[in-house]
Design goal:
- The chain is mainly alpha-helical.
- It is built from 18 helices and 5 strands.
- The protein has a 3-stranded antiparallel sheet. The protein has a two-stranded antiparallel sheet with strand order 1-2.
- Helix 3 packs across helix 4, helix 3 packs across helix 8 and helix 8 packs antiparallel against helix 11.
- The N and C termini lie far apart (48 Å).
Length: 432
Amino acid sequence: MIEGAWGLLGPEFLLNTRRTRTLGLGASVRRFNDLAVPGLGGVWYGKQLLLATLGVAVAEAARSQGVKVQNIEVANAIEALACWLAFKSNGWSSDSRLRGNTKLQGKDDFSFRRVRQRNFYVTQPMRMATVQALPALGFVESDSARFNAFCCAEGGSNFIEQATRNYSPYKRSVIGHLTKWVLGDSDKLENSPPLIQALSPLDSLSEDAIQLLRERLIQGGIESREDKKRRGNALAWVESLRKNRPDRLTWAQRPQEISEDHWHDLQAGALFFEAREAAIATLDAAEVHIGNQGAGQFLSLKHQVPDSLAQPLEKLKFAATQYLDFASVDEDAKTFCQESVGDDPASILRKLVYRDGHVLRLIGDEIKPGAAFRGSITEVSANDEDQETPNAGDISLPEGISYRVRNLYLLNLDMHGELDEWLNPNAGGGEA
């Protein structure tokens, strides 16, 4: 959920969310991802955590001096500043760790009063991926899951100190300089290498900050012992993969770092994700069929299901059956898969379209275009955790495993100084 004064539903966000198909399974998605790597959220490199924690700390410092600001707008502003500084330093080259290439180019007024404005930066900042991780790792404290309710914890203050103590922009601490920026007392920004190095997502965390982050990943904050153990075991596993780089892993090979229960939940999640993807593929096929009907676009459930939907429906039934045969650790996932099996294709489609309701809608016995209908297969988001994993190098992981394992692998690469090489495997391969 998006909260606060910045990041509300503007036009750019509506265009994206209208093509999101959660199918009423958002809670199941979160549960299986939490069972895989508890508390990680969408984090996949260390600077995401630093920028968000800085946002909370600087907002607190500014409020203590009488300025009315919210955590969200300060964190988003610091993130926008960090990306702007990084883009200016790298010649506006695209990088998975940066956002806002189009939004930020050509902007030269980076006063806080300007940067805090709602449409200045992207509508889905990286901060959104940290909402679960910050309290889970003990960087913030809060009785609420709302980012605006976060208070910087001792662990967060230590993290900021370790990450920024070697940088003194204009003979100030980083947090002190950013606080003055928020207060409107200083707009000195782009000509400060220490500030660029401290904030830029392209520059790794210091060794001391990495050591603290690794300890937080293992020890965590206020979490159950089992959650801490699972995340620590997952970190040990991806470290083993980093060192050994196996060619291929299957579900038949449980790593020694992962317990049987944990491995079972990882596999159950993979089977659920496969069934969900098969459901989306079926809805895509129905959308294309309806889009090809010309005028009077609809699909009647009173007649035989079109041949073009036969194969997607069979794949859905197979995937749902696999999940039901393996495990039913999540009741919503179980109900969804039970709805996706049976001998009546029309019944499966009816329940599936009812779950959709945005791209396709059910009116009586007819499937008709919904508000987000396009009539062709386009990219549709099924992930509600606000952070996609970049595609670059290969990671050997069992098929369908939670994206959080992949993200933890990348975070571990980052902590070992190997993320740049993974993101840019061909860098430096040209002529000198």
